[in-house]
Amino acid sequence: MGARSSATRPRALGRAAGLGLGAAALLTLLSGCSLEDVGSKFGHFGWPGPGVSLQAHKMYDLWIASVIAALVVGIGVWGLIFWCVIRYRKRGDELPVQTRFNMPMEVLYTVTPVLIVAVLFYYTAIVQTDVDKLSKNPDQIVQITAFKWNWEFDYRDGMGTEAKTVTSTVGSSDVIPILVVPTHEKIRFEETSKDVIHSFWVPELLFKRDVMPGNVRNVFEVTVDKEGRYVGRCAELCGTYHAFMNFEMVAVTSENFKKFLAAKTTGGKTTQEALVEIGEDPYSTKTQPFDTRRGTHSWNQGGETVAAGK
Q: What would the CATH number be for the domain defined by 140-292?
């Protein structure tokens, strides 16, 4: 019996080593690509995508790396399960050797999960700290004011409640509010609500933050690195017309952003006129006003007059 046990041990170790080599080969194969390349090949593993800000990229990388680690662990676990099923299947009526415990194995399946959780916790804490990090001198400060059931975006000349508003964009039932932001600049958002709890959410930022009423001001920063138009929503159930509380974020170059602010401040133009000034569509293109049925009205959207409430 002892000879048999000693003979099977090398084979068991060999199979375990094979699983380890397979996992190592998978990691080596994946290491040749960036996490974004790997994620795009597999549908981002359920994540919305790499995002459009530096903070979003860090969260995306954490997600993809965590999924890859889970896949490696899963392959190893399933491999061991099937190996045990095949290796120790019933071969007769003889009762196999009964083992009370296996100390190396017990240490392995106790220490390994602890190490995995510790590593995941470590990198999660790092990414969360980076996402919540605030700079001393952001490039732009925008105050987000939520109210039932729309948005106001105030471009400020400084931080805190003592700062003054340079210019504003206010949404209505007829016109989707446009939040214009520059790319490659640190944008500080300071949130406040006039009534109930709302939530500022742009899916492409892979981030959302509750907008609190009263003296609570949630503050966060993003650095958008890709131009484009992105739909924004309220992600907190806030009342009857919560589903209609949308906006559009327009990311432009720093030069065009300066032109946009100048057109609104010194030029006295509306948000729509200022958008035309920098070559952008004056109205939202990714979303449109919803029919709230709060009365008969119409709006001009993309050059067409649309009636609502009928």
A: 2.60.40.420
